[in-house]
Structures are given as structure tokens and as C-alpha cells.
Design brief:
The chain is α+β, with helices and mostly antiparallel strands. The protein has a single domain (3-112), classed as Nucleotidyltransferase, domain 5 (2-Layer Sandwich), CATH 3.30.420. Helices cover 45% and strands 18% of the residues. It has 4 helices and 4 strands, in the order αβββααβα. It has helices at 3-21, 56-61, 68-84, 102-112, and strands at residues 25-30, 35-40, 47-52, 91-93. A hairpin with a 6-residue loop joins β2 (35-40) and β3. It is globular and about 40 Å long. The termini are far apart.
Length: 117
């Protein structure tokens, strides 16, 4: 098995529990160069809000999209967009990534922005 398969295998258990609860989830994906966040409805069918370091307004603020500072900017932005969509509480889906570094920075910034999870 390669790293991606192992990560998705770890993510499956969390996603099954979130789906069982029918909770709105904040899911995170990180690559070497960028970080992405989406808020997905309880059925998993629709993306309600999204933010990433590939967006033009975010890129203009940052020198590099693959660090903790960039993740914090995306966390604040996703919290603002969630508030605008009327979402206050989410389940955090780290997609099998370790809660450390960029994933942790995004989560803490989203909490500071007013999301509850």
C-alpha cells in the first residue's frame, strides 16, 4: 500500500461516523504546495463553502501556500464563509492527515473565526 491508500483508509472510520451523525463537516486536504478546506452538508452531496490557497485574493497575501501561516489564513476565510452561509457548528474531517502543523493551524484559525467543532 502507498501513503495515499493508507491515509484514506484512516479517514474512512471518521467519515463513516460523521455520515452516521448527518453532521455538516469541515474537510481538509493538503498538498505540498497548497491547503484546501470545504464545508460539506450532512448528506455529503453539496459543498456549502470552500477556501484554499489557490484563490487569487489569498495568493496575493502569501508568499507560499504550503506553510502554517497560509493554513491559518484559509482557516479564517472558511470560518467567515461558513458564518455567511449560516453554519455555526461542524464536524472536523482531517481526511486521515495527522492533527499537526498545517492541519492544526487551519483548525485553530477556524475556531478563532467562530466555528464550533
Amino acid at each position: 500500500m502507498n501513503k495515499k491508500v493508507v491515509r484514506l483508509r484512516r479517514a474512512r472510520k471518521t467519515r463513516a461516523k460523521i455520515a452516521e451523525l448527518k453532521a455538516v463537516r469541515l474537510t481538509v486536504f493538503r498538498s505540498n504546495s497548497h491547503i484546501y478546506a470545504q464545508i460539506i452538508d450532512g448528506s455529503g452531496a453539496r459543498v456549502l463553502a470552500a477556501a484554499s490557497t489557490v484563490e487569487a485574493d489569498v495568493r496575493s497575501q502569501l508568499a507560499h501556500g504550503g506553510n502554517a501561516a497560509a493554513a491559518a489564513v484559509v482557516g479564517k476565510l472558511i470560518a467567515e464563509r461558513a458564518k455567511a452561509a449560516g453554519i455555526e457548528s461542524v464536524a472536523f474531517d482531517r481526511a486521515g492527515f495527522q492533527y499537526h502543523g498545517r492541519v492544526k493551524a487551519l483548525a485553530e484559525a477556524a475556531r478563532e473565526g467562530g466555528l464550533k467543532f
